[in-house]
Amino acid sequence: MGLLREGINEVIATTYQNAAPMGLIYRNQVVRMVVFRGSHTAERIRKHGWVVANFIYDPVVYVKTAFEDLPQEDFVGEQVGEIFVQRLSGAEAWAAYHAEVDQETDEALIVTLSLLEEKIATLALHPINRGFNSIIDATVHATRFQQSRDHRLHDLIRHHASLVRRCGGARELEALDLLYTYLDFGNEE
Ligand SMILES: Cc1cc2nc3c(=O)[nH]c(=O)nc-3n(C[C@H](O)[C@H](O)[C@H](O)COP(=O)(O)O)c2cc1C
């Protein structure tokens, strides 16, 4: 399936005037998303029927889009066949999909994606960095912690934060500061 790899691809999903980190699940030649009800992404997929996967390696963008909106100037319009979609200006590559809600549970929509078009804008090497990976993990836990205040999630966030401090670069440290600000964690180690 083009740019995706098998398993869960953690991308920044854009829908109409909205961006959020989302997992695109690619298994058995099918691409799906499980999108929690109440999110803007769920609402916009239902309304407009498209989603764009943005491949981006900026940890700050993952933290920011998990907790707030991006300014409209960060979105770039693309005509894809008959549909007008929006991707992020900083995307190194993007893939636009038709999105159809297949199933609904009390908590989430299960959405099947069909590829419309994909493009690579820049080709860059991203050496594996545990600091970057830990920002992604800490941010996943943080979005859940915000709902539940579960202390086990708090411990996981702190574990990943220590890896970010050990293995990350300046941008990962900036992302961690931002994450701690959203969580109101102060300067705790
Ligand atoms: C790496 C990562 C992956 C995520 N994957 C999903 C997902 O697959 N489905 C989902 O509903 N939320 C997912 N989230 C949480 C959403 O990004 C978060 O709830 C966000 O606030 C939704 O924003 P929205 O209201 O603009 O759609 C993920 C978060 C992170 C950091």
Report on the architecture of this protein.
The protein is α+β, with helices and mostly antiparallel strands. Helices cover 36% and strands 37% of the residues. It has two domains: 7-120, Electron Transport, Fmn-binding Protein, Chain A (Pnp Oxidase, Chain A); 130-183, Up-down Bundle (Methane Monooxygenase Hydroxylase, Chain G, domain 1), CATH 1.20.58.290. A six-stranded antiparallel barrel has the order 1-2-3-8-7-4. A two-stranded antiparallel sheet has the order 5-6. Flavin mononucleotide is lined by residues 10, 18, 20-23, 33-36, 39-41, 62, 66, 136, 139-140, 143.
Lay out the secondary structure.
Layout: E1 7-15, E2 18-27, E3 30-36, H1 40-48, E4 50-55, H2 59-67, E5 75-80, E6 83-88, E7 93-104, E8 108-120, H3 130-148, H4 151-167, H5 170-183
Antiparallel strand pairs: 1-2, 1-4, 2-3, 3-8, 4-7, 5-6, 7-8
The structure holds flavin mononucleotide (FMN).
